[in-house]
Amino acid sequence: MKKTTKKQNKKTGYTADDIYVLEGLEPVRQRPGMYIGSTGPDGLHHLIWEVLDNSFDECLAGYANEIKLTLLPENRIKCEDNGRGIPVDKHAKTKKSALETVMTTLHAGGKFGSEAYQVAGGLHGVGVSVVCALSKYLRAEVCRDGFKYCQEYAKGKPKTKVKKIGKCRQTGTVIIFEADPEIFEEIKFNSKKIFNHLRQQAYLTKGVKITIKDERSSPAESYSFYFEGGIASYVKYLVRGRTAIHSNGFYVSAEKAHILTEVAFQYTEEIESMEEGFANNIYTGEGGTHLTGFRTALTRTLNDYARKQGLLKESDSNLSGEDMREGLTVVVSVKLRNPQFEGQTKAKLGNVEAKAAVDGVVSEALTDFLERNPQDARIIIEKCVLSAKARKAAKAARQTVLRKGILGGLTLPGKLADCSSRNPEESEIYIVEGDSAAGSSKQGRDRRFQAILPLRGKILNIERARLDKILSSKEIKSLIIAMGTAIADDFNLDKLRYQRIVIMTDADVDGSHIRTLLLTLFFRYFKPIIDKGYLYIAQPPLYKIQLGKSIEYAYTDGDKVEILNSISKKNKIAPSIQMYKGLGEMNPDELWKTTMNPENRILLQVNVEDAAEADKIFDTLMGQEVLPRKKFIQTHAKKVKNLDI
Looking at 221, 272, 322, 510, which residue is catalytic? Predict the structure, then answer.
């Protein structure tokens, strides 16, 4: 047996001294992602949502009707409401002020077993304490019982005691915080993101005035929201610019099994659907039982009505949920006592009872709606029947593409110049336009990991086309087979053959149009590829500037000016300037050196931060309606920099 020395014990021993006990809010600072999702932009903005949730809870409880959010200089955020104000008296268990307890203790608040809140969004009770933990500075001000109190904190720990600083007639709470740069990758608040969130919340909390003020620049910008129509008004906002197919929108608000259910929907001529779910005003981006309950009720009720009215023949199969949701814009909002979310970021509702409650409310109200509005009912059913026919045609077309892809094996489309690597992580495919660009890129590429797929002309504008028509396009079919993912219901991201898909088009108007058509295709049918960060846009140079044997490339007009200024300081001879009108004008070596070589190239990664807003822009720019597109261009023409990204 090998002798063990004391020194070795010290290195390899595992004793009680190695067990760390994280106290207070230390767990939050050690693992912030567990509480706010990430330390990137989404996590940073989640701090604001957590503070706002407490103010909205006061509104839902009927104690507040006004919320103000201010973006202050130096990355500080101020949130105030006219609710009851956080209690400041001594807490029996912690022996500290209730305010300090709430701000510095996980799972402390008025939402656990007390009668303070019948409905609340922040069910985990970690909201404002997490903000406190992840803030370099936080100040809480409370007005209640005729006096104003305050306390300051840093990184989850109190820096002052709760003190009385004056008198006040009103009641309410003010939270001012500055996110900790030690925690977050970058502290940069997006006013548009905050603006959209507050507008959404104003629709969900009818009768509450919400004001946002940005004081980071002069003059300060201020906006206010106040909606009496609730989510019925929200649906009207979501479908603006689209053509509704029935005149009367559906809306119901009713309580069943102690769950308040609000649902509003409208069908439009669009092919895409838009479903937004909320539980206690918290956006459930991944859906949940409340949306499942709505879908079940919609499918069953519309099928029953269609059978009863003879709009479906006896030999016809029932319409599917997918058929029902084409062109549907719906908002489902539930308010319940004890919501169960998956994760602290509350992306999905898990309450089983919510499904039955929503199903029951929607079934009763929708049956009544269809009976009272027979013309609207017929229009809706006819659209669903048309969707069913298109779905069957699309399924046949998808199967054709799949069979061709499987039978083609590794040969793939004939015009694809594939790479030798079979590792998706290192493989990339360039989608190029025209034979000349394809020739240069095929010769200039690194064959080991770079594939080239040329397109002939402009692909189909898929914005208003059904899937069966889309799959009749040879160019789109070639792209689908080359990527290996299939499409629509058969889409499988795990089968993607390249983890860098690069759109490389000319810098002229036609090239921009082709790029936009491709972006539309990816956004509508391959969005997971965008979400994963696999889609890029190549940036070929616009100019070649040569003086003697010295050659420099300018990617923008600004680059050209900078290079020319630099040359003019050193030389009296004017350089030659060549403007590239297309990729085909570049020889293979130039294309490799400037656009395809990973060491030198510039690739723009495509991302979609706000899917709903992007959806509206694609509808406006690529849809059939001319007037909204004309208005958009007139409004944004002077400030547009790059319309494709």
Answer: 510
Nearest Cα neighbor of 451 from 404, 419, 413 is: 419
The more confidently predicted of residues 620 and 459 is 459
Task: Give yes or no: residues 302 and 213 share one domain.
Answer: no
Domain that holds residue 465: 412-540+605-636
CB neighbour list of residue 526: distance below 8 Å, 6 or more residues apart: 483, 485, 487, 491, 535
* 418 given a catalytic annotation: no
Say which CATH number the domain at 185 has: 3.30.565.10
Catalytic (active site) residue 508: yes
Q: Sign (positive/negative) of CA torsion 563, 564, 570, 573?
A: positive
Question: Are 122 and 250 in the same domain?
Answer: no
Q: Are residues 207 and 260 in the same domain?
A: no
Is 149 inside a domain boundary? yes
Helices 352-372 & 289-308, crossing angle to 10 degrees? 30
Residue 576 has pLDDT above 80, yes or no: yes
Residues 289 and 248 in one domain: yes
% of the chain exceeding 90 in pLDDT:
54
Contacts of 245 (CB under 8 A, 6+ apart): 267, 268, 269, 327, 379, 380, 383
Q: What is the C-alpha to C-alpha distance for residues 450 and 570, in angstroms, rounded to an integer?
A: 39
Last residue of a domain, which of 174, 207, 225? 225
Q: What is the pLDDT of residue 3?
A: 42
Which residue, 468, 466, 479, 464, is CA-closest to 518? 479
Select from 249, 252, 326, 343 the least CA-distant residue to 293: 252
Number of domains in the chain: 3
Q: What percentage of the chain reaches a pLDDT higher than 70?
A: 85
Block residue for tokens 């000319």: 506
Catalytic residue among 323, 418, 433, 590: 433
Mean pLDDT calculated for residue range 619-645: 52
Same domain, 445 and 360: no
Tell me if 53 sits within 8 A of 121, measured CB to CB.
Answer: yes
Q: Is residue 554 part of a domain?
A: no
Identify the active-site residue in 508, 531, 609, 610: 508
Active-site entry in 506, 552, 590, 619: 506
Residue 318 belongs to a domain with what CATH number? 3.30.230.10
Q: Which amino acid is at 623?
A: G
Residue position matching structure tokens 């319409």? 319
pTM given for the model: 0.71
Residue 64 lies in a domain: yes
Instruction: Please give the Cα distance from 26 to 383 (Å, whole number).
Output: 56
Active site residue 506: yes
C-alpha span between 565 and 56 (Å, rounded): 56
CA 8 to CA 125: how far, in whole Å? 45
Domain annotation covers residue 161: yes
Assess whether 343 and 472 both reside in one domain.
Answer: no
Our answer to whether residue 590 is catalytic in this structure is: no
